[in-house]
């Protein structure tokens, strides 16, 4: 034999294990046949009609007044770019959003504290608050009105105005 050719032993292919049911009768697992069903006959679909724009829900004067009051209290602490968004009919959890910006996290926290304390003195307490520790984005939930008080860069990042672009807005000086 030449040195380039070597004897290679052919290995037999590994045997496949059979399913236990196949080993008994030489077949695979049994399939149980269920009752035969008749094909369902559905009625033809009615053509889709274009939706008419829904009328906006009736205005809530108390919620609108609360939104304006929150905006005023934020402006007292030098909030910038204050907006009131009318989200009635667009969201189920609020009628108005108040969005305001502050130049520092301390200013945002001061705006939130001013809103909460002054409204508490007037007899209105928030349902919930979030973010007061950090001051980047403070959320004050007053039920029908939700206030979003942002640090300027954080507001630009989340862009709530762009998210709710179709909502009517009122700019507060």
Overview of this protein structure:
The protein has helices spanning 20-25, 61-76, 105-121, 152-158, 160-163, and strands spanning 80-86, 96-102, 128-130, 137-141, 145-151, 169-172. By secondary structure, it is an alpha+beta fold. It has a domain at 61-172: Beta Polymerase, domain 2, CATH 3.30.460. Strands 3-4-5-2-1-6 form a six-stranded mixed β-sheet. A hairpin with a 6-residue loop joins strand 3 (128-130) and strand 4 (137-141).
CATH topology of the domain at 61-172: Beta Polymerase, domain 2
Total helical segments: 5
Order the strands across the largest sheet as they lie in space: 3-4-5-2-1-6
Strand content: 15-25%
Number of strands: 6
Jot down its keywords.
173 residues, alpha+beta, six-stranded mixed sheet, 19% strand
At a glance:
By secondary structure, the chain is of the alpha+beta class.
What's the layout of helices and strands?
Blueprint: H1 20-25, H2 61-76, E1 80-86, E2 96-102, H3 105-121, E3 128-130, E4 137-141, E5 145-151, H4 152-158, H5 160-163, E6 169-172
Parallel strand pairs: 2-5
Antiparallel strand pairs: 1-2, 1-6, 3-4, 4-5
